[in-house]
Amino acid sequence: MRSLIVGIFLVLFFAKCSDKQSPILKFSHDAEKDTTWINEEFLRESPFAHSGKQVSYTDANINYSLGLKKRIGAISDKKLRKIIFSAWVYLDSLSAFPRLEVVSSIDYNGKNISWTAFPLKDQVLESHKWTFVRAEFKFPYQSPPDPSHMYSVYILNTSKTTVLIDDVNCEFETE
Ligand SMILES: [Ca+2]
Q1: Rounded to the nearest whole angstrom, what is the distance from the C-alpha of residue 167 to the centroid of ligand 1?
Q2: Got the DSSP string for 64-85?
Q3: CA 126 / ligand 1 centre spacing (Å)
Q4: Would residue 4 count as lying in a domain?
Q5: Quick one: CA torsion of 135, 140, 144, 149, rounded to 10 degrees?
């Protein structure tokens, strides 16, 4: 009987442990109107918008998509584990590859201290169609980062073709 009670207790204990998940902080933008994101000057009306009327527009002259730029301390006072960036993209041509990627970057005092690119080539198989893309980055910190570090994440299009981006979503996972 005693071993049965201990067994039930252990089952309940491990069930409780498996419920535990890291907190997630979300930031989303539907490319309509917001004041806390970067490259909003390149939002344009488009009949092809994935949501509403506007998209983030990139081409041979405009290389940076709508993106999030925030002080680490403004994101969370906890240690950041990773960010999951997602968005919808619409390519005029698959020749945008390999020069279309998600960039995760950290600056401090105006100098870059971390820069990682995540290629999107494997996720987009057709042009002239909205495709959901996703990129995951681990944060490089071994200890809680300086809250004044500036974090940014966006899509970089250095190809010569037009790529539309809409419904950008950033989820930060903390300890
Ligand atoms: Ca939109």
Answers
A1: 6
A2: B-SEEEEEHHHH-SSPEEEEEE
A3: 20
A4: no
A5: -80
The total domain count for the chain is: 1
Host domain of residue 37? 22-174
In-domain check, residue 8: no
Q: Which of 165, 172, 175, 9 is nearest to 87 (CA)?
A: 165
Distance from the CA of 40 to the center of ligand 1, in angstroms?
12
- From first to last of its 175 residues, what are the pLDDT tens digits of the chain? 555 444 544 444 444 445 567 788 888 887 766 556 889 889 999 999 999 999 999 999 999 999 999 989 889 888 899 999 999 999 999 999 999 999 999 999 889 999 999 999 999 999 999 999 999 999 988 777 788 999 999 999 999 999 999 999 999 999 8
Distance 155 CA to ligand 1 centre (A): 16
